[in-house]
Every structure is written in structure tokens, then in C-alpha cells.
Amino acid sequence: MTNFPSKRKSSGIKQWDHVYTSSVQNAPSHHWLKIFGAGALKGMVVTLKNFVTSYFRKPDQGGIFTVQYPEERYPEIENYRNLPFLVYDGSPDKVRCVACGICERECPPKCIYITMETDVAGKPVRKPAVFDIDYAVCMNCGICEEVCPFDSIFMDHVFEIASPRRIDTGMIRHQEDLLKSSEYLQKIRPKTATMIDEKKRAAEEKKKAVVKPPQGPTV
Amino acid sequence: MENMTQVENRHPSETLEINFGPQHPSTHGVFRMQMLLDGEKICSLKPVLGYLHRNHEQIAENITYAASMAYTDRLDYLNAMTNNFAYAIAVEKLAGIEVPERAEYIRVIMAELARLVNHITVIGFLLNDMGAFFTPLLYAFREREKILDIFEEVSGSRMMCNYFRFGGVKRDLTTENLTAIMQIVRRFPAFLEEFEALLTKNEILCMRCQNVGILPANLAVNSSITGPVLRASGVNYDIRKVDGYSIYKRFDFRIPLGEKGDVYDRYFVRILEMRESLKILYQALNKIPQGEFLNKKTLPFLKMPRNFKPAVGEAYGRIESPKGELGFYLVSDGTPQPWRYHVRAPSLINLTVLEDICIGQKVADAIIILGSIDIVLGETDR
Amino acid sequence: MNMPPLLRDIEFAVDLSFVNAKGWILDLLSHIVPDWVVVFASIVISGVAILVLGPVIMMYLTLLERKLIGRIQNRYGPNRVGIWGLLQPIADGIKMFTKEDIVPVYADKVIHCLAPIVIVIPALMVFLVVPFGERMTAVNLNIGLLYFIAVSSITTIPIFMGSWGSRNKYSLLGGMRTAAQMISYEVPMTLSVVPVIMMSQSLSTNKIVLSQSGSYDMNWFIFTPWGIVGFIIFFLCAVAECNRPPFDLPEAESEIIAGFHTEYSGMKFALFYMAEYMNAFTLCGIAATLFLGGWQGPFLPSWIWFLGKTFVLICVMIWFRGTFPRFRVDQLMGFAWKFLLPLTLINILVAGLCHFISEKTGWIYSFIIFSISFWVLVRLNRPWMPEKRHYPLAN
């Protein structure tokens, strides 16, 4: 949406000078415009001009810029943040989230509920058993995404989440509703996803490099 | 209430008590005015507030500093960037954090874009109250849409931006963003010319707005009015020039002043202020340096906001928001949550003169005067 | 006009198509039923035509207004219901029919329920004297114009009834303003019509149109000096009589929510709405008749000319709505009494003057007289004229 040509008249610097240099800002008026009623007529001319150009100009030059939803959609912007979702790598049980609970603590309206999973012996496993987000309470601030140390929760672009009930299958989303693959992340936020993959790859290479040298000279 | 006895002595007519209630198309939110009318003249006016009270200050005392940045967006919900700016300045004063150059420029650009958005919205709604049936409002919204697109690309959300962080901003501006902002700045004067051609010399507008709701300068200063309302009454006070917070001292811009202080002056001062904002934007876009967008020392606090414990003390940070002086007063006691957090909302303070300037005017004027004082209920009631 | 005879025959046929259709039906009936039934049937046909035409015109006027205002504001108007939104008025009608009819508890029920009825009837009655085309006036009254002015001024009463019967302070404010406004604007409206009556020497709308014939059917009254000023004044008063912006105080949406029809819902509101649009249509029709030559015009059939002129005037009314803010009450009254009224009186003078002297000198004299009087009136109404302001820029 950012590539609109500025074909309006004042795209040159010269026409800016009168904005800079005039010291008493009173719109210059010609002599005949001082008749009572002329200001109103000038307004009518502006409206007429808008009426006529609305038929055949492009949207950003005076034409109609309505996007007829749901047939047409507004182009998606990468950084748009709406509601959170969880990321998995590959298959839905390889969740990146380790249920550390930082996002739950930092969430301002406290809309995340996490319980860590425990295995049969009672020892905690680093996976969430329960991960509920109340979409009705979430205020789209994005703080959960910022504080997550494991890059596992991100802000989604969905906004068509209307549902008839508030609690069951309504606004409270459970873990299975929230899990989306990392390919989905790559699709909606390519720059962020690429950056995270690079970081991961760099961290892995560093680990490999650290492991290697001790085995070298001793043999 | 002396006006009441004057009315009764003049002729025995009853006064009508009417309630411009919380639900009204033109009171800019849930705001109630209790008026006593004599025919069409207003005898007394009492504003009743509190319908949108959301406990903002108390919530902030229970969450960390960084988390309440997201709540400051919702104070003056029309220009969220400004509220974030003021809060960031207050916290940086409290904790002594410095802001890098590029971040300062980005902040000024966002603040001036927010000023443009606010002023055109206000003028559009003022004309809506006057009955122009949405036409100037929709013309204004055309430009506002472009600016909101910029906000969305930069911060992620059109209105609730949550963009500023302590020591900088959250995300850098790319060259595409800068080009887009420059295109907006180039288009804007043409839009302003069209807007003025439609409005400024319109006889009906002049008849409705001139000599209506005159605010004398000494009353304005005594009631601590700030913002365009004060400058329209002729008082030369703009916090960007007086305090010189952020890097406003480097930009060349002037302050438009009005003469009489009526509704027309407030409207025209806002248009002139928009032109000055365009100047500032132009200079900032040309001079923005490369560099980092966030003070590196505050990066760990982004991941672990619980560790951000400013020193014990207090700070008051204020900026020139499009509605007046927006200030945040913070008292810290060494814990991650502030001990006291108070917002000095310009809308609430500017409302205190509403009764004085409305008495003697007609009902239709009261609506216009309220529209020209430019209140937002989110800020007034917090 | 020298047209080939075939074309002229076609033009006559199209021109008188409705008249011929009605004549054919009556002819058919006269074979079947006695004579007095035929007379009765003639009245019924005219009445039914108007009763059908009125609401249909109103419905499509609302759609036209919404689409034009949408285009002025750079957006589409309604375009979801049917292509180009053509079924939107039907959807609106269904909505109005099925809404709950709320009567406030302490309201004066008789007045409250009567008001919408009393406002629609005059709006429909005015259709009788509007000349839709050659020989297409429903009732050819000798005093057509007087009838029109009298009947259209009845609308003040039901508006006041509506506001009083609703027992609501907002409605009361609206009603008071309306009564004042409509009565004040009757006076310049009536006086601006006086030159037309003088020049055409008759009150019948048909004769007024016929007196504007000649020179290729373009000898309209608007091309005379008193005609232009009279037309502008009449049009402004017509806009005020219909309660359209910029004179729409009675239903000032942003101040007193909906003025006199705040408490009306459902079909009663639809009747108020209908009356407003039908009033707008008839007033534009009468303005076209009096000043723009009614159905006179070369080449095209008469009813197309009439509808075209009315359509143009309605578009101008809609254009006013999209552009201007609203007047305040005292400014409105001042405008009518202190500005328009003196102008109408001077207009009558100028009309008389132009009748007795030749055309060219008539234009020069009338231009001088009007400019002087305009300047004097503007000086006298000093308090409201826009002032020049200076805005210093400080550091």
C-alpha cells in the first residue's frame, strides 16, 4: 500500500516556499471573492470537483478508495499484530514453547493461562499441558511476543474470529487452536521468520564449533 | 448562578433543564452536560464526567512500567503515539536513560504525524457537529488513512501503537517507510488547500464560529488551559519551544497565535499548526541520521521487564500533545511497579472553562464550543 | 421549428402518451359503464397515478440522495442490495414496516398518532397542481399557485404536533425552531413568486408555463433579471421549507438528536420521511414551473423536460446538503427577515420596471439596483458577515 504516486500538484519543492516564508497566514483572497456568498460557492466547487473525479480517478488521486470487503481484501502488512499463536516445527508435537510462564507473567491484562506438563513419574516436562489464551481479553499489545526467550509465540494476522459463545469454542482458545506451523509463520512474517532461522542456525554452528576443538589436538 | 436571577427579574419565563446526556451523537464520547436553558440561551451548564473511568492509574500501579506502555495508548485513543511519547519521556527522566539520535528523530516524526491526524480529525468532527454531514470529515479521513497505514507498517497497529520503548523505539524505520512518509508530506498541502477552500471562507461557518465562545487570555492562563485553545486566545506558550524536550530545538518552526479566542480562531490555529508540523516533518525526514533505534542498555529489560527497577524518586514528563500539555507524574520506590502514577490529561483541565464560556450562548453554540475545545473521553476519565 | 413531419408526429405521440393512454382507457370504459362512472373513473385514474407516483418518487429520491452524497464524499453509496443499490428503497420500506411502533408512555396519544398523517396529506395534495407535462396537470385550478402556497404551509402544524405530542425536551426544542423557521420563510417565498404572477397575469400553473413559451420554447423567466434573483430567493426558501440542510434545524441531528421526530419509530417515521422528500420534489417541481419554464423546451417530450429540470434542482439540493454546515436559529431568522425579504420587495420593483422599458436597458438598470441593494443589505447586517482576521506567527 505504500507505492502510490504523488501526482498531486505540490510535489515540487518550489511550491513549498510560500508555506515556509509567509509570516501572516491569511488565505489570499481575490477582490471578487469578497462578495457575501462567494465563500460558499467556492466550497460548492470543491464538492463538485470531488464528485466528478470520484468517477474516473484512481484511488489515491481523488477517486474512490473503498475496499469492498469481503470480495476485495486490503493487502496484508507484515508487522500487523492482532492475536497470538504458538509455533511448532514440523509436526504439532514439536512445540517450541517450553511453558516457562514468562508471557503469562508479563501479559498486562493477564489473558494467558499455562500449566506445565508432567510425565508419569511427576517430573515436569518442558512442554505446556494447558495453554489457554482468552481472545476476548487480549489487547493486542505484543508484549508476549517480545519477552518470549524461545521465539515460540507470535502475533497472528487473523481478525475474523467472531463466534457465538464467549467461553466454550468461543473466545478462549486452547492449545490445539493456537498451534500453527512454522511455515505459516514464514508466510505471514517472512522477515521475522528468516531472522529467527538465521539466529538458530548461527547458534547451532557455534555449538558445533565449541564441541569440535577439544577432540582435535589430543588425538 | 447570578445569571439565573437576572433572567427571572427580566421576565417571568421558566427555565428548561435539559440533559445533553451521555448518549449523544456530538459529545465526543460519553460526556454529560446538565444545562439550564431559557428559550435557547444557556443559563448554566454543569459538566458531569466519569462515564468512561477505567482505573487506568490504579492498573498501572500493579503492572510493570513496560506493560503500562500498552495501556497509555488507550488514554487519548485518537493519537496513541503522543501518549507513548509522553510516558517514555517521563520514565526516561525517572531512570536517567538516554535516547540515541535516530530514535529521537523517529519519535519526532511519529509525534508530528500524530498531530496531523489529531487536528484533521478534530476539524472534521467539529464540522460534523455543525451539520456538514460528514463531507469534511470524510475528506479528512482520506489523509488520515494514509497516515494510519504508516503507523500500521511501523508499529503493527493503526491506533493502539505501543511503539515507544524506554530509550528508543521498538522497531526501526526502513527506507520504504521513510519514502511513504515523505509522499504523505508532499501530498498534504494540496489537501489542506482543498480543505481550506471548502471551509475557511464559508459564510455559514464564519457566521457560526466567529465571536462564539470567546475565551479571554487571562481566564485561559488562570485556568491552566494549554494547547491550541490557549494559543488561539493569544498567549504564546508551546511546550515544544518552552521546554525544548527531545530534539525540537533543532527544528525551525513557528507558533501560530490567534487574536480573539473564539471558535473560529481555534479552528484556524489548528490548520496553521498543521502547516508548521509539515515543516517539522520535512526537516526531520531530510536530516534523519543512521544509527541505532534503541539504547543498547535497555535491551535486556525488553526481555525481562521485571528487572527494570528505577531508582527511588519522582519525575514529571510533559509534552505538547495536540490537545494540550500531556504530563505523566511517576513516583518510584525501587520496585518494578510504580508507587504512584498520575496522568495530567489536557482534556480534563481544558473542560473547566466550559461553563464560563458557554453562558449566554445558545444551545447550538455549546456543542460547537465543546467540539472546538477538543476533548477525548478516554483521557478525561482515564 | 422545422422538423420533418414524421419526427413531429412521433414527438407529439410521445409527448401526449400518458394523456392518450388515459383517454383510451376512459374510451374503453364508456362502452361498458354509464357516463357518470366514466367521470368518476377519470378522477380515480389521476388519483391513483399520483398516489403511486408520490411514494415511488420518494423512495428513489432517497436512493439518489444517498448515492450522490456518497460520491461527493468519495465513497460508493448503497450498492449491495441489487445492482447499484436499486432495491435499497424496498429494503428500507420492509425495515420500516417491521419495526416496533413505540409510543412514549406520557405522550399525548391523539396528537402523537395524528401528526404523521397530517403531514403526508398536504404533501400529496400538492401533486395535484404540478404540471408534469402538456395537458398533464391533474387538476387545472385557476388559483393553482395560491392553492400550492396555502397547502404547503400546512406542514408547520403537524411538525409542531409531533414535537409537542412526544413529551420530550429535545423534540420541543426542535418544534419551536421549526415553527419559527417555516413561518419566517413563507414570507419571502410568497413574495418572490409575485413577479411571476405579475408577468404571466394568472395564478394557474398551466398558464404560467404557457406564458413562458416562444423563441424555441426557451423564453423562461429565469433569463430575465428579476427572474434570476427571484429564482435564487425562491429556491433558498424552498430548501428552508423542506427542512433540508443548510436549514435543517428542526431535525438537527447533531444537536437535538432528531428534533421533532425523535420519538417516532417504524411506519410513523417513514411517513415523516416520506413527507419531507415529497415536499422536496414538489417544491423543486414548482420552482421549475415558475421560473424554469415547466415543461417547455425544444425537441424532447414535455414530461421529460419537466422531470429533467426537477431532477437538476433536486441534485442541487443534494449538493447543498453535502457541502454546507447548518445555520443557527437566530441567524436563520435574520437571514429571512433582514436579507431575503427586502430583496424580494426590490425584486418586485425591478420586475415592474423591466416590464415597461426595453430589454437591454432593463438589464443595466436592474443590475445597478440589485448591486446597490445587495451592498446596502450586507452593510446593514454587519454583525454576521465574515470578518477578516490576522494570525501572527510567533517564535
Major sheet of chain A: size, sense and barrel closure?
3 strands, mixed
Question: Please, what is the average pLDDT of chain A?
Answer: 75
SS class of chain A: alpha+beta
- pLDDT < 50 stretches of chain A: 1-33
User: What kind of sheet is the major sheet of chain C?
Assistant: none
**Level-2 CATH architecture of the largest domain in chain A:** 2-Layer Sandwich
Q: Flag low-confidence runs of chain C.
A: none
How many domains of chain C? 1
Shape of chain A: elongated
Return Rg of chain C in Å: 23 Å
Count of separate DSSP helical elements of chain C? 14
Largest contact between chains: A-B, 47 and 54 residues
Strand percentage of chain A, roughly?
5-15%
| CATH-derived topology of the largest domain in chain A | Alpha-Beta Plaits
Report on this model:
The complex is a heterotrimer of chains A (219), B (382) and C (395). With 219 residues, chain A is an alpha+beta fold. Chain A has two domains: 38-71; 84-206, Alpha-Beta Plaits (2-Layer Sandwich), CATH 3.30.70. Chain A has helices at residues 17-21, 38-56, 102-106, 143-147, 167-171, 175-178, 182-188, 190-211, 215-218; strands spanning 84-88, 112-118, 124-134, 153-155, 172-173, 179-181. In chain A, the strands form two sheets. Chain A has a three-stranded mixed β-sheet. Chain A has a three-stranded antiparallel β-sheet with strand order 2-3-5. Chain B has helices spanning 2-10, 56-60, 67-72, 80-95, 101-130, 135-155, 175-199, 203-209, 217-222, 228-232, 239-242, 263-287, 299-303, 346-350, 354-358, 363-373, 377-381, and strands spanning 16-20, 32-38, 41-48, 164-165, 168-169, 255-256, 313-321, 324-332, 340-344. Chain B has a three-stranded antiparallel β-sheet. In chain B, 56% of the residues are buried. Residues 1-8 of chain B have low confidence and may be disordered. By secondary structure, chain C is mainly alpha-helical. Helix content of chain C is 67%, strand content 1%. In chain C, helix 3 packs across helix 4 and helix 5 packs antiparallel against helix 7 (156-165). The mean pLDDT of chain C is 83. Classes of the chains: A alpha+beta (219), B alpha+beta (382), C mainly alpha (395). Chains in contact: A-B, A-C, B-C. Chains A and B meet through helix 2, helix 3 and helix 4 of A and helix 3, helix 6, helix 7, helix 8 and helix 12 of B. Strand 6 (255-256) of chain B pairs antiparallel with strand 1 (393-394) of chain C.
